[in-house]
Automatic annotation (TrEMBL):
FAD binds at V121, V259. This is Glucose dehydrogenase [FAD, quinone]. Gene3D superfamilies: FAD/NAD(P)-binding domain, Glucose Oxidase, domain 3. PROSITE patterns: GMC_OXRED_2 (PS00624). InterPro entries: FAD/NAD-bd_sf (IPR036188), GMC_OxRdtase (IPR012132), GMC_OxRdtase_N (IPR000172), GMC_OxRtase_C (IPR007867).
């Protein structure tokens, strides 16, 4: 049996088991007549689109239609651990984009290009992600404002972060002004703590990192991850904003409907969209606006398919250029992560992957909402620190995530499958062993890439070139980050409490360098680096003076009337940490901008 069929079998098993225990959420949907006319069309019901649609529908005289390419979410989506279900190959809940082979990163992968995953389902990538809730740091938003985007400074965006939140963690009085209760999105700390996780904060203390609430203005330190869950179940923006909105008469959701083009009149005013539903091309018209919330791959793709984008690129593909916007699909940013910095722990304190997912764990979760299934796979603690810029010691430049698991712990079925044979050989002696990893991420990488069209066929995926580690500053900072990760995992507490042992053997591909010398780490970083699934920036928000800007600070597409982009694409620069929470804030603020423009607030 091939590895693929084993994985698909496991996927089937997970889905059946989950379906036995959990009732999936079913969203009310509609099939609209051809040429329907509404006030607003929102393309995509993902992390941002659901917020936008739900908030717009608060205005009772507005009709809002959401067109979503995917379908109903699977039963397993609610259970944090079972996000794994959509990690299996060829999942029907995912879009797979094509990645160009990489020159500077991912060198240990079998294929340095490969596929890049996004959610294609109600709730979008927020339905299948790992739920880590991370707002970024205040300086991220001060930078956005300083780039000429008024109204996006930290003080303003904090209001929107708080508006979405129902925080259920411990709270120090100094942190209280930054947190909120009673909002639509639940935020809880990771509850299941295996031995590795229990000593994570003490390991940070050995490095001088105090425990902090990283979603405030104190961002250097260590912390247990916060998750977007309520009572230990995943909460998506579709659950929190779309579902309540769908109970009103003025909000409609149509699924399995892929938008293929924006319809514009002779004056470049967006008046509707063409979409495909059940193999039939249909149209929907918007009296007020079309809003693209299709994500950082599909929003620029839709603009380009509609003739809005870099003229030369469009003409090469035989697409008539309507508005020459050279910035569409440029400025692609993502977080870069280096895997493989790992330790084994003593076998008598371990739990196997099968214990973590077996019927006992299911029952524990189902009856008490406790145990391993309450957390996404391996997620425990994070450390934010500054290793590259002593002038700004209070601003983290890297993030290290501590994962309670080893590559190869699943006998390589899943975690090692993307890698070359030499990596499999390296892990063979410890396959199945328990342990932990320290994975460094660059908080704000400087390397930027592109999203382009493969062809003018709307069903072809966009092509991504993330170009990671092309900027020399990123490369050198990642080497420092890898060394800091090694120091952190070597903390005395891990050895004392867990019998932690580093994998003290050079990776064969880098064995020609002295073990753990700077050159060894450079080779290691080039090899192990991969993308963090945080694509953004591809329709960047900028003032008119910036020729690469795609949307204005009010998120209107330049050169087109009645068209906005509101999703991760608009970020002018990537924020420090994971970006799902940032998309909630963008959705909240975007909806308020629209309401302001129509005098509704
Ligand atoms: C595997 C994975 C793990 C992740 N883990 C985390 C994490 O732990 N923490 C975190 O902060 N971030 C995480 N992220 C990133 C985060 O989920 C995304 O950044 C965020 O969801 C992006 O929101 P969005 O609204 O821009 O796009 P999406 O949520 O991707 O929504 C886009 C929606 O548009 C729909 N769509 C696309 N094209 C069309 C079309 N032509 N017509 C109609 N509909 C269309 C899609 O089906 C989708 O539903 C993860 C992402 C992935 C993929």
């Amino acid at each position: 049996m091939t590895q693929f069929s084993v994985l698909n079998l496991l996927a089937g098993f997970t889905a059946i088991l989950a379906g036995t225990f959990f009732k999936p959420v079913r969203y009310p949907t509609n099939v609209m007549p051809d040429d329907i006319i509404v006030d607003f069309i929102v393309v995509g019901s993902g992390s941002t689109g659901s917020v936008v649609a739900g908030r717009l529908a608060e205005i009772s005289e507005w009709d809002v239609l959401v067109l979503e390419a995917g379908g109903q979410p699977p039963a397993f989506a609610k259970v944090p651990f079972l996000h794994l279900g959509s990690e299996f190959p060829n999942s029907s809940y995912m879009n797979y984009y094509k990645m160009r082979p990489q020159k500077y990163s991912s060198q240990f992968a079998k294929n340095t290009g490969g596929l890049y995953r996004r959610g294609k389902v109600i709730g979008g990538s927020g339905t299948i992600n790992q739920m880590m809730h991370h707002r970024g740091i205040p300086q991220d938003y001060e930078n956005w404002a300083a780039q000429g985007n008024p109204g996006w400074d930290y003080k303003t965006v904090l209001k929107y972060f708080k508006k979405t939140e129902d925080y259920k963690g411990p709270l120090k009085s100094r942190d209280a002004p930054f947190r909120a209760f009673g909002g639509p999105i639940g935020v809880e700390k990771v509850a299941w703590k295996p031995p590795v996780c229990r000593v994570a904060i003490r390991a940070g203390e050995e490095m001088g990192l105090a425990e902090v609430d990283y979603n405030t203005d104190t961002t250097i330190g260590s912390a247990i991850f916060q998750l977007t869950t309520k009572n230990r179940e995943r909460v998506t923006t579709a659950d929190a904003f779309l579902l309540p909105g769908l109970r009103r008469r003025n909000l409609k959701l149509q699924i399995n409907s892929q938008v293929i083009k924006i319809i514009m009149d002779a004056e470049n005013r967006a008046i509707g969209v063409k979409y495909v539903h059940k193999n039939k091309v249909k149209r929907a018209f918007a009296k007020r606006e079309v809003i693209l919330s299709a994500g950082a791959g599909d929003s620029p793709k839709l603009l380009m398919l509609s003739g809005i984008g870099p003229k030369k690129h469009l003409e090469t593909l035989g697409i008539e250029s309507r508005v020459d916007l050279p910035g569409v699909g440029q400025n692609y940013q993502d977080h870069l992560v280096v895997r493989g910095i790992s330790w084994t722990i003593h076998p008598n304190i371990s739990s196997s992957i099968f214990e973590r997912i077996g019927p006992g764990a299911m029952l524990n979760y189902f009856e008490r909402r406790s145990g391993p299934l309450t957390s996404p796979v391996g997620i425990c603690a994070l450390y934010q620190l500054n290793v590259g810029n002593p002038q700004e010691p209070h601003i983290p430049d890297i993030l290290i995530t501590q994962e309670n698991g080893l590559l190869g712990q699943d006998y390589g079925l899943f975690t090692l499958s993307p890698y070359k044979q030499s990596i499999h050989d390296y892990y063979r002696p410890i396959k199945g062993r328990d342990g932990f990893s320290m994975s460094p991420w660059l908080s704000r990488p400087k390397s930027v890439g592109t999203v382009t069209l493969m062809s003018k066929n709307p069903f072809d995926p966009p092509v991504l070139d993330h170009n990671a580690l092309s900027h020399p500053d990123d490369f050198e900072l990642m080497v420092k980050a890898a060394k800091a990760s090694r120091r952190l995992g070597n903390a005395k507490i891990f050895r004392r409490a867990l019998g932690a042992e580093p994998i003290n053997k050079p990776i064969p591909d880098c064995a020609h360098f002295a073990f753990e010398s700077d050159d060894y780490w450079r080779c290691f970083v080039r090899g192990w680096s991969g993308m963090g699934a945080h694509m953004c920036g591809t329709c960047k928000m900028a003032p008119d003076s910036d020729p690469m800007g795609v949307v204005t600070p009010r998120l209107k597409v330049r050169g087109v009337k009645n068209l906005r982009v509101i999703d991760a694409s608009i970020m002018p620069s990537i924020t420090s940490g994971h970006i799902n929470a940032v998309t909630f804030m963008i959705g909240e603020k975007g909806a308020d901008l629209i309401k302001e423009d129509y005098g509704k607030i």
